[in-house]
Amino acid sequence: MLLLAIDTSTTAITTALHDGSSVVAEVTTLDARAHAEHLAPGVRAALAQAGAAPTDVTDVVVGIGPGPFTGLRVGIVTGRTFAFALGLPVRGLTSLDALAHEAWLRGRRGDLLVATDARRKEVYAATYVLDDSAATRMAGPLVSRAADLEPDVRGLPAAGRGALLYADSLPLAVEPVDVSGGALADLAARRLALAPAAPDGIRQQVEPGHGFDGLEPLYLRRPDAAPAPPSTKSTLG
Fold this sequence. Notes:
Radius of gyration: 19 Å
Domain Gcp-like: 32-150
GO biological process, one term: tRNA threonylcarbamoyladenosine modification
Low-confidence stretches: 199-209, 224-228, 231-237
Organism: Humibacillus xanthopallidus
CATH class of the largest domain: Alpha Beta
Pfam family, one: TsaD
């Protein structure tokens, strides 16, 4: 296995490679508004770091958000295009799950809020329980003002950049802040290890319900830009 993971749902434009045992390469650039410029060079740099060629990759996983429309779309389209060009399976994972998984890898246990920057003074949020086996999502994701989350939720330890931006509402900020490609890759590799295999031993495309979430982006709200409504004025003379 050589799994390529890509996420562009947060400020981090991040990509990583996992060989089935551990993360063998990770490249991350922090830039909230230049996902398209940084992602392809990041993929090339991760492959070079691992001493691998694109044809060595066996699986692709992309973070499906929630996240801002343009940045999120860049990551999903890049992952799907890479997989299509090489005839590889491509799968999606909720990006907030990767943040919770990294907190779990760091040794955190108990209840956790993940809150990332949704702009417009809002956060993308989900709650998790972290026990000795995994980080399990309990509610969400949703988009909300941090101050409008339930009081018991606001009082939880909170990973993600939202906790830094809205410290008055989310006072218990913890690491990590942005999605790590390595954490996303590790989570995907663990779920792939539990996925059903075809009789010939080749892993097939895994549909939602087998630990993966499909490839539809989680925008949670309409994009800022939308086509203008059609004019009712006649253009006929």
